[in-house]
Amino acid sequence: MRLSRYFLPVLKEDPKEAQIVSHRLMLRSGMIKQQAAGIYSWLPLGFKVLRRIEQIVHEEQTRAGHIPLLMPTLQPADLWRESGRYDDYGEEMLRIRDRHKRDLLYGPTNEEMITDIFRSHVNSYKDLPLTLYHIQWKFRDEIRPRFGVMRGREFLMKDGYNFDLTREDALHAYNRHLVSYLRTYERMGLQAIPMRADGGPIGGDYTHEFLVLAETGESEVFYDSQITDLKFGSRDIDYDDKAQCQAVLEEFTSRYARTDETHDEAVFAQVPEDRRRVARGIEVGQIFYFGTKYSEPMGATVVGPDGARVPVHMGSHGIGVSRLLGAIIEASHDDKGIIWPEGVTPFHVGIVNLKQGDVATDSACEALYAELKARGLDPLYDDRDERAGAKFATMDLIGLPWRITVGPRGLAANKVELTSRRSGETTEMSPAEAVERLSATYRPVFAAGLPSPAA
Ligand code: ATP
Ligand code: MG
User: What's an example of a GO molecular-function annotation for this chain (predicted)?
Assistant: First the structure.
């Protein structure tokens, strides 16, 4: 993309309404625009990151054997009357009436609808196990929407639902989700710690929340510091292997890590004092096993091996896709702006032309731009007629992990500068070496992916 042709409405001033750094930086870098309290337009740069995050979520769900579909945002109230949640959900639910006076609602989650799909089409235990998921907009009329996309009213969520014959199979589905979430967050450059949590309105006593540690987090968390040393890394996992998935769950959940809802001082006191941590965290996902809570009242049954109909065991599993942008920025920024992890960056590299209009500099930039694209990279070329300082400030603000600076003085010796946004380190090299270096840097990032299931 050429910046002169892009739409990047950066703000010079700090927006007054933003209380936390991620909200401020998303507004300043032209990623989002607020349209109403907790409701945002995603401007091109923000939309690009949102899509990258979504893509990683799709890839890791597919890898785990989970199947994408798409349910609507609007749902008939009658489905929710069957589960009893139409009345229970309260004011967070946005209720709508259509021209025929039928009650609808803007879905805050999809347990009822997916259970309806299941009971309409699945009849036998032979069709299990089954896990379906979608990435769709949700609406919750939060009493206090704040912190930008972190606590919106309209927000994008991945929600997945497993259907299994037995409790044991459903707990394996739970473990599969835990493993796939660990991989998902790590690919985004995040450490998200599974913590024992509380069931809340979705119900269920078997649940973990994934928390990213950050001072601005809304949850108070208590944990054994050893847990922050755990990395999932690039280990290979067979998602059908129950023992292997169970071992990962045990590894990542055996140390003390709880939110304030389930915190227990007496148990926490058994953690050696120098390892006890009390901090704040951002919830970026949650997994639940809730057995037959929905399948029983809604009649989601299958014919079991002995010929009798039994209600299926279910769980639901969510990732806060739009909240993740805020969480990543809270975890990765400095006083100049965002620092995107390579896995989610909107553009892989920025090219800064120090002397726009100079024939040799322009043509070196054009050649770099073409070569990077030919290598499968997505560069942003700042080809505007601006001062170098302004170009650098924009690149730092929007947080691309790498910048190539091209000027006539360097070019005379066939050199450009390659700068890391994170370390600030700059190295001189030939344009060809810069392209080589960047392709090598992104090779593992691309290798971590899978072909798009939606394609
Ligand atoms: P919270 O406790 O933050 O209100 P929740 O536990 O009600 O969230 P879940 O039902 O577990 O949310 O939804 C799955 C994920 O969706 C959450 O882990 C979170 O990352 C995200 N999420 C929930 N509510 C919002 C919101 N208002 N804005 C943005 N993301 C949200
Ligand atoms: Mg939750």
Answer: ATP binding
User: Residue 147: how many CB atoms within 10 A of its CB?
Assistant: 22
Q: What is the pLDDT of residue 200?
A: 66
The whole-angstrom separation of Cα 54 and Cα 40 is 17
Burial-class residue 152 by CB neighbours within 10 Å (0-12, 13-18, 19+): buried
Minimum CA distance residue for ligand 1 atom 14: 318
The predicted-structure confidence for 276-287, as pLDDT tens digits, reads as follows: 999 999 999 999
* Residue 156 backbone dihedrals phi, psi, to 5 degrees: -95, 130
**Residue 2 alpha carbon to ligand 1 centre in Å:** 36
Residues 128, 169: contact at Cβ < 8 Å? yes
Q: Ligand 1 center to residue 280 CA distance, Å?
A: 16
Residues of the chain with pLDDT > 70: what percent? 97
Ligand 1 atom closest to residue 157's alpha carbon, by position in its atom list: 16
CB 408 within 8 A of CB 348: no
CB 131 within 8 A of CB 67: yes
* pLDDT digit string, tens, across residues 162-213: 999 999 999 999 999 999 999 999 999 999 999 998 876 555 568 999 999 9
Quote the CA–CA distance of 395 and 8 in Å, as a whole number. Answer: 11
Q: What length does the chain have? A: 455
What share of the chain has pLDDT > 90, as a percent?
A: 95
d(CA 255, CA 154): 35
The closest-lying atom of ligand 1 relative to the alpha carbon of residue 200 is 6
- Domains of the chain are 21-338 (3.30.930.10), 347-447 (3.40.50.800)
